[in-house]
Amino acid sequence: MEKENTKHKGIKLVSVLYSNSDIMQGVRATEDMLTANPKLAGIFAANEGGAVGAARALDLRRLGGKVEPMIDTGVTVVTMRNFAEPAVQKILYPTGKE
Known about the structure:
2 domains; two-stranded antiparallel sheet; 39% helix; globular
């Protein structure tokens, strides 16, 4: 993450915290990060536990809706605005919806 961040000059990496794929650890890590950086503009979570934990921490602080959730697939950024687009659906459901 730190190496990748050097490519983006306008982004400052404030900390690297780990959730170990655990939702509650993700909540605590996000709470710690938000407490230390109240003007934080973004959060990157590398796994489901970290992402769900971050979302819960944002909801607990009533910041839900003030941050647009995104899933970076490495190719396409998926948001609620483009979620229904056929190309996005193919990424999310490569074998089709069941």
